Every structure is written in structure tokens, then in C-alpha cells.
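Memo to structure team: turn this sequence into C-alpha cells by end of day. - J.P.
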Amino acid sequence: MTLSLTLIVPCYREASRLAPDRFLEFLDATAGTGLLFVDDGSDDDTPRVLRELATRRPARIEVLTLPRNYGKGEAVRRGLLAAMERPTDLVGFWDADLSTPLALVEDFRALFEARPDTAWVLGSRWRGLGRDIERNALRHYLSRIFATVVSAVLRLAVYDTQCGAKVFRSAPVLRTVLADPFASRWVFDVEMLARLVREYRSGRGPDPAMVTYELPLIRWHHDGRSHLR
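Reply from structure team:
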């Protein structure tokens, strides 16, 4: 039986680069998946674009509008919590620029189905033979330094903490991880991992290294219009 999935797509000033047709094509080709767009207080045409998109697939697209701009971390946190209020096996978030192609969503779902003990699957931008990964060189090297420091601090061998494609099993531990707002607007991914490590290493769960899986992406292209500076 295919696991159901709700994907959160955080949006802030995305009107000029959002590709509605690509999301619709994905939904039409994929069963058991819903989209929850979170408008993070955009002051451009993003709210209108999202409302129109939702009307085209009302049973599978929802829009959550935040009253002001809180930052990506809070938009993702609120979106995930909202998604967990409805019946769904998996929840996750995906960058609105689709630097990670939506077609790869099925790779994440298949991994959960093949590995019932897996709780979190993190997209990983590992450049290797047979992979089409295009990253800004400076960002890549800064990311490697950052990930090395995070791995040492958390004592968790994570290669890529900041990829905007992550899927989680909808479970009580995820609610605990998301219970409080994040301190950072952008590196909230690391806070999520730190909270998971704290919960599981306190004796309330398995070794986090055994339930968290990094999935090497076969394609990822950097979008030069990213809001992150």
C-alpha cells in the first residue's frame, strides 16, 4: 500500500519564479500526495498566484497564509504541524524553486516503504558519477565546512544539512521536535536534527543514526534567484 504524503512548500515573494504547471503535472502523475503551500507574509503577487493554483486542484492543494514574514524555518514548522493534523503517513518540505525536481519525491516515498524503521529521509547533494548536481562553488565549500562542524557537534555523520528536500514519517517524535519555534530563520534544519538527537539519546528512542537516512539526489540545480545571501 502506497504511503500517503503531504509536502509543505514555503513561499516568500515567489510570484516571479513559481511554476504552477510543474506542480499540477506532478500531482496528476502522482497518487496519494497533497501540497500545502505556506505563504510567509509575501508582499508581492504570491498570495494571488497560490490562491489561483489551489482552485485548480482544490482536493489536493491547500494554502496556509501567515500574517507576516517569519522566515523559512517558521513557515516550514507551521506547515508541518498543520499537515500532521490531517491523516497522512509522511510529511515533508520542498523548496518552491524546484531545485530538487518533484519527480524525485517518489524516491523518498519508496525508501520509507522499503525501510519501515526509517523516520527521516534527508535529500543530500552529493556530486558523484551519474549525478547531475549543479551548485555554486562558494556555497558548496562553505556548506562542506558547515556540515563538518555540525557533524562534530551532534556526533552524527551528516553530509548535507541544508538541502531543501526532506521527508519525515508523521509520528509523535516529530511533533516534539516541532513544538517550539526555531532560533534561526534559515539553519532550522540543524535545529531539527539537534532536537531529534536530544530526544533519542535521552533514552526515549533508537540511535538517531539508525533512523535517519541521507538520500543522494540524482539531480539538483542551484537557482541564482535564491533569497539566501
